Model the fold of this input.
Amino acid sequence: MSGCIRSTVHHGCTIPGPTPTTAEPSLVEHSPQGTLVTLRAGESVDATFACTRKERLLTRTGQPYLAVELRDRTGTLSGRVFRDADLHSGRFERGDLVRVRGHVECFRDELQIAIEQIERVTASDSEAALFLPVSHRDIDELDGFLEHIAGEIYDPALGALLDRLLSDGALRAELRRAPCSLPCTPQGRPSGHHAFLGGLIEHTVAVATLALELCTVHPRLDRDLLLCAAIVHDIGKTREYSYGAEIARTDEGRLLGHIELGLRIVSAATPSVLLDERRLALEHCILAHHGLDGLPLGRFASPEALALYRLNALDASLKGAFEHGLGR
Done:
C-alpha cells in the first residue's frame, strides 16, 4: 500500500488572548506540541487533544463503535473506538479536551488513531484554546497592514470613528484573535472560511486591500466610505465567538449575529461629527455585505455597498477553496 494521506494541517503564530494559567499536571504532561502533524502509521499515541466530533455508529455486524475527530493546533485526525465503545462514550463529550491512548494505523489510505483509552481532561479556557487552529500569517504584520489602510482614509469623521475603534485595546485584541466562522459543523465537516484564530484580521485586511485597489480602477467610488466599511464590516465577529476546547458562538452571537453586533459596535463609537447621511451609508454597507436578504429596499443603495458585497464574497470564496477545496 502506498503512503497514507496526512491529516488536515494548520501552521500558526501567536494569537493575543487571555494570559494562560498554570496547566494541571495531566494537561502539561500530555500537551499538544505538534503531535498530530508528526504522527506516522505504527506509532503509539498518549496525548491530549480537542474532540471536535463524536458519533456512535454500528459495524456491519451490528456492534457499536465511536467515530471521533481529534484536533490540536497542527491539524486534525480521525479516531475510532471499537472496544467498550459505550463505556468510553460516557467519559467525554464533543467539545471536551480528551486524553487519548492508542496507536496510528492506515485505513483506506488515510491515517487514523485506533483508540484504546479516551477520557475527558479538565482545563481552563485559556489552556483549552491552545488546541485551536490558528492563522499561518503573522498577526503583527497583518495588524500593521490594517493600520496602514486605516491611515488612507482622509474623511475626518470616518477617520475619527476608526481611531476610536482601533484604540480600544479590548476590541483590538479580539479583532486580532477572532475567526471568521466556526471550523466545523456538528457533524465535523468544514463549515466556512478563515475558520481559525486570527482569521478575522486576515480577512479584514484582504477585503480592505481589494477595496483600495478597486478604487484605483473605479475612481468614482467613494473611497473613504468603502475603505472604512471594508475595515468594520465584520467587526461584530469580535463578540460572536467564545474559545474553549473548540470555537463556539456566544449567546449574543447565536441570537443576534455578527451584522447586528457590528452595527451596535459602530453606533457606540460613532463621533458626533459624522453626519447622519454618512453614518447611514456606512451602516447600509455593513448591513448589505452578505447580499440583499434582509435589506428593506431589496437592492443595494450605493455602489460602495455593492462593491463591498462582491469583495467580501471574493475573498471568502477563494479562502474557502484553498482551505476545503473546490466544489464544497
